[in-house]
Amino acid sequence: MSSIPEEAARGFQQGADAYERGRPGYPVEVVGWLSRELRLGPGRTVLDVAAGTGKLTRELVPTGATLVAVEPVAAMREVLERVVPEATALDGTAEALPVADASADAIVVASAFHWFDAAAAAAEFHRVLRPGGRLALLWNRRRVDQPLQRAVDDVIGPYRRRPPRPSRDSWRGPLESGGPFQPVAEREVPFEQILDADQFVDRFTSISYVAALPDRERQSIVRRLRSLAARAAEQPLRLGYEAEAYLYKRQ
After folding, report:
1. Region of poorest pLDDT, from 7-16, 53-62, 215-224
2. Which of 18, 39, 42, 160 could form a disulfide with 202 if both were Cys (CB 3.0 to 4.6 A apart)?
3. Helices 6-14 and 74-83: angle between axes, nearest 10 degrees
4. Virtual CA dihedral for 50, 52, 56, 58, nearest 10 degrees?
5. CATH number of the structural domain spanning residue 68
């Protein structure tokens, strides 16, 4: 992720363990759909780019496909190697993938494409995918219409230095212009993440700009998040999301 700001890289490095404990995975319905659409199975190779701690990688293990996880942040990669030993973990970025030409049948990018230099990443994806290979982009979008999610934004929003994830129209261009990739299908699935108070704190302190804060400011956020968790009417806590998946075919 050569385009990731230094602050964000530092936050992911410092927040890797909280990321693993607190971030949601992906709904079974979405993972099953992707596995079928990507035709994953024994003899197929899938590249998980900016894999983080392997939140999606681990869900693909049962397919029997060969898993290669590329992650540039050392602390995230160390967690991935521990929790998903079935995958080969490599140090690298979306803009300079450490794999050979036409070596992958599929590429997945989960909650990360917005960090990339989209044009450079698209060129790399085209290079490493075999002809007819497929690319899947996923995000978990928080349901900010939920009162608890809005209350969280009141706590962490003032610290956000980077704009929210770009709209889908803004990131489609580098993939689709000039014809490197053809859109195939999209899927949206609502789901809930169920957490206790500690997981709730980890969920939001693992956000890069929060994790990178000085200790005093970060601890202030922790106290406010714990107060939110204690006051929540519903226990355990439930956070609403929409999982979004976008499928492309290499031209």
Report:
1. 7-16
2. 18
3. 40
4. 120
5. 3.40.50.150
